[in-house]
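Quick one:
INPUT:
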């Protein structure tokens, strides 16, 4: 499986540090030789808390390998910003999907599943199933 054929993952958070840390965690838990294209899109261009359509669009473009892009968002305006970009239709790569999943657990599930060469639907399903993870 070529890294060029994998679903890309974008992690949208109100905080650059949170998005980067979750991306690092997910990548680290995959291990192995396959490098899933994962890009954090956190905070604003100026480094503050918030969301940026420009950062999200750039992150999506950077992970697009033609197999689709799964976007996970933390909450509120991050979700709304991604929905607005999708509605515009030309800001995000073709085959980009907003995935309804918990941010951390969903990101890990998405990256692990993408690393197997799974398609966008399977990556989305794995991330969504993370809602069912029980801790006790």
């Amino acid at each position: 499986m070529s890294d060029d054929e994998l679903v890309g993952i974008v992690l949208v958070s109100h905080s650059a540090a949170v998005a980067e840390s979750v991306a690092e965690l997910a990548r680290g838990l995959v291990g192995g030789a396959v490098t899933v294209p994962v890009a954090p899109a956190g905070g604003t261009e100026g480094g503050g808390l918030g969301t940026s359509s420009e950062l999200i669009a750039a992150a999506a473009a950077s992970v697009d390998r033609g197999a689709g892009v799964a976007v996970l968002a933390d909450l509120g305006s991050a979700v709304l910003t991604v929905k607005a970009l999708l509605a515009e239709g030309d800001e995000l790569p073709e085959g980009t999907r907003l995935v309804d999943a918990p941010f951390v657990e969903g990101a890990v599930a998405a990256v692990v599943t993408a690393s197997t060469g799974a398609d966008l639907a399977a990556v989305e399903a794995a991330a969504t199933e993370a809602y069912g993870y029980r801790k006790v």
